[in-house]
Amino acid sequence: MKVLLVNPPNCGRSIPEEHYGIDSLKLILRAEPLCLEALAGNLGEEDVMIVDLKAKPGTFGDVLADFVPDVVGITGVTCEANTILELASKAKETVNATVVVGGVHASNDPSFFNKQDIDYIVVGLGKLSFKELLTAMASGRATHDIPGVAKTRPGGGLALTPRAYSRDDLAQESPPRYDLTNRYRDDYVMQPFGFSLGLVSTAFGCPYRCSFCCIEGITGGRYLTHDPETIIRDIGLLGDAPVIRLVDANTFGNVAQSRTLCQKIGESGIKKGFVADLRSDTVVRHPDLFREWKDAGLRTVIVGFEEIDDKKLGAMEKANTTAINSEAIAILHDTGITIIGDFIISPDYHEQQFRELKDYLEKNPVDLPMISILTPLPGTPLYKSMKDRITIHDLDYYTLTNAVVPVSMDEKAFYQNYADLMRSGHTAARL
Description:
- The chain has about 425 residues and is α/β, with parallel strands linked by helices.
- The chain has 2 domains: about 1-125 and about 125-165, Rossmann fold (3-Layer(aba) Sandwich); about 185-430, TIM Barrel, CATH 3.20.20.
- Helices cover about 35% and strands about 15% of the residues.
- It is built from 16 helices and 16 strands.
- The strands form 3 sheets. It has a 7-stranded mixed sheet with strand order 2-1-3-4-5-6-7, with helices on both faces. A 7-stranded mixed sheet has the order 8-9-12-13-14-15-16. A two-stranded antiparallel sheet has the order 10-11.
- The N and C termini lie far apart (about 50 Å).
- About 45% of the residues are buried.
C-alpha cells in the first residue's frame, strides 16, 4: 500500500494577537516529526512518504495528487485537532484514501475524531498497532478488534479494545526512517539558539503524574525506555546532525540506564551536542550524573520548573519544591549546562504574581525561560477539575499561550504582563 504520513502545519489562534495586537507570544516549532519517522520505520515494504507541513506549508494538495496514497495517517496535538479534521476532509475529497488519526490529542480525547472523514483512530503509542492495522487491511481481515485502534462510528460511540502497552510496542528492531524527511532537514533548527538538530527517542511515557500533563495517555501510564544500544544506533543514523535532542518527557527517569547510555556514548566516540529533558530533583539527587553527561556532550537541558510557589506545585501534583528547583539551577550553572526553563502562569495571576516570577528569574536565572499559560487539555486530571470554568472550547486556542478560562485581572493587562515577561527572557537568551 501507499501510505502518506502527515505532520500538520503550525496552527492555532492567539487571543492576545487577535484582541490586543500582541504578536510576540507565538511559539514556532521546527523539529522533525519523529513520531512519523518511527511509524514509517516499522512499516516494512509499504511505500511510505512523509509530508511535513510545518516545514513546507501549503504543499498537502500537491502531494496528495502526485503520490495518490491508499492510506493517510495524520498526527497532532490538541491545538492542531481542528486542522487535522480539515486535512482528513481534503484527503477524502482528493484521493478517497483511508484516513487514520493518531497522536497526543487522539490518545487523550479519541471521541473528538469520531467524524465522517476519519476511518480509524490510533490511541496511544502507535508504532506496532498502526502496523497491525495496515496488515489487517491488506489481508482483508477484521480491523474492529485491534488493541489500541478504534474504528470510527459517526453518530455512535467508539468501539475500542484497550492496548496493554509493553516494551514490545517500541519495536526497537525497526529504526526510524530519517531518510523520509531529508528534504526538510535544513528547517529543523532550535530557536532562538539557531543550531540545527536531529531527534532520537529514548523513552515513551513518564513515571510521574503531573495534573496538567497529557503524556500518560500515550502509554496508559507506563514508562517504556529504549535500550542504550537502540539509542546509539539511531544517533548514528542522523549522520552530520551536530546536535541531538533526546526525546523523552524525562530523559533521566531511569538513572541507572541514563548512566549506561552516557558511558556508551563515550565508548562509541560520538562527538555531538545533546539536548535533554529532566526533572530538577534528579539534578539535586545525582549532580555527578550531569557532570558525566556534560563530558559526553550534554549542552542544554529543558527543565519543568512550572511554578515558584510550593502550594501551587502541590496542586499540580508536581511532587517537587521551589527550593529543589533553585538548587538545581545552581548545580546546572556550575556544571556549565544551558537551561531552558518551563514555567506555567495561572489565569488567576494578578500583577503581583507576574512581578514575583520576574523577581524569581532575576535571582535564579535560566538561560531561556519558556512560559506557558495553565491550560486544561482534554483527557488530563486538570481538565476534569477545571471543566466547569472553561469558556473557550475552540481547540484552536489550546496553544498553551491563551487563557481558556476567565483571567482574574484585566485581560489586556494580563496578556501584556505575559508578553513583557516572555520578551525579557528571550532578550536575555540572545545575549
